[in-house]
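Sharing a chain and its predicted structure for anyone who wants a worked example. Both blocks are below, sequence first, C-alpha cells second.
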Amino acid sequence: MYRANYVSPAKDPMVYIVSHTWPERFESGRRRATVEVYSNCDSVLLYNDVTDNELYRSKKNNGIGTHFMWENRDIRYNVLRAVGYYKGKPVAEDLIILNGLEEAPNFHRLYEGAQPLLKGQDGYNYLYRINCGGDDYTDEFGQKWLQDHTNFSRSWAEDFEGLDPYLASQRVTFDPIRGVRDWKLFQSFRFGRHKLNYRFPVPDGNYRVELYFTEPWHGTGGSAATDCEGFHIFDVAINGQTVIDDLDIWAEAGHDGALKKTVEVQVKGGELLISFLEVKAGQALISAIAVATTDATAKPAVYAPVEWSWEEAAKERIIKTPKEMLPEDVDERPNVTYEAEDAVIKGKYTKKEHRKQQGVFFEKGTDQSIEWNISTGLAQVYALRFKYMNLTGKPVPVKLQFIDSKGVVMKEDQITFPEAPEKWRMMSTTTGTYINAGYYKVILSADTMEGLAFDALDVQ
C-alpha cells in the first residue's frame, strides 16, 4: 500500500494483485468476482492469461488513497496477470495462480527457461533429499524428497518447552518459480537465523551437498528498476565451517527465481550439520537440501513415521474460530438499508411485492435511473450491496455513480447485473476509496433498465 501511494513510478514502478496468499478463492470453480490491484502506475491492464489475451479493460490511477478494481468480472482461467503502465509504456508486472479454474491457454509459457536443476548427478548415491518446510514430494525425475520434520531440522522454538517446534520458521509462496517445473518444492521454505539448522547422520567421508533457494518476498510486482540486493544476506556453514559466504538470493536469481548451490565437504564424526552461523541482513531462507556420496554402499538413517503434515497444519491455522469464542467486537460496522421505494426514480416503473419484499420494477422506457441518498459515519471504504432481480434473460450493464454532497463524482463505473428471474439476489461493490462522514448519492442509470427490479441498497 505504501509503495502504491507514495513511491514515484518514475523511480520504482510497481503493481500487486490482491492477494498472493489466497489461491483457493476459486476452488468451487468459475464465477464472477472482484479483483483488486495496488499500483503507483498511471494505468493497469488486467489479463486472465499469461500472455496479452483474455483482457479485462484498462483502469486508470485515481490518486492517493485509491486502488484499481475490476468488479463483477467473469474469472475463467487459473492465471491473473496485471501490467502497470507509466507514460504509455509497460513498466511493472504481477501474476498469480488460482486453484480450481480451467488452465489458461498459455499456461505452458510459465515453464519457459526451465532447467533440470533437480536431476541427480550421475555416479552419486543420494542419501537424503529434504523438502524444507514441506511434505513428501516426488519431482519430475521421479526422485522423492522427504518431509521436513524434527528428526532433521531445528529452529529457535526448540529452546522453549511446550512450543510448536516449527513456530515462526516456515512459510509458503504460491507464486510460479522461474527456472524449474517443480514449483512446489521451492514454494515451501524454512527461514531463521543462527538457530535454524539441519542434521544428517552419515558415515565419515566425502559428500556432495546441494542447496536450493528462492526469494519469495522481496521484489513482488516490481520492475527492472526494483533493487532488492542486500535485503537477505547470510552465510551457509557445514559442520561449523562457512561454505557459502554472503549469499544474496535476489542478487543471483531475482524474485521467485530458482537458485542451486553445490558444495563438496568432508565429514568426520558421523554427522553432517548445515547451519546459518551469520545472518547479515534479514533472514536465512532455504527450500530444499540434497546430500549425496560416491559410496554406493552408504545408507541413510531410517526414522519411525512422524505424525505431522505441513499441509494439514496450514489448513488448521485458517479454520475460522467460532464467533462465540471471539472477544466482543466493539468496533463492529453497522449495516444500513435504504429501500428502493424511497429512492428517487426516473423513468417508467411499478412498485409491487415479490416474495414478501416490496420492490421497484422498471418497465419499458428510456433514460432510466434510481438514486439513493445515503449518509455515512466513520471514514472507511464502504460496501454497497444492491438487492435486485433481473428478468431479462441476459446480463444487464448499468452505470454506477457515487457522488458527494458538493456534486463531485467520487466513483463512476459500469457494473453488470446477472440474470436473476426468480428471487432477489445481491450484487456487491464498494465506494472504491475511503470516504468521510457526510451525505452522498448512489445512482444507477442506463438508456433502459427494463426488466431490472430493486428491493434495497445496503451500505456497510
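Comments welcome. The chain has four helices and 33 strands.
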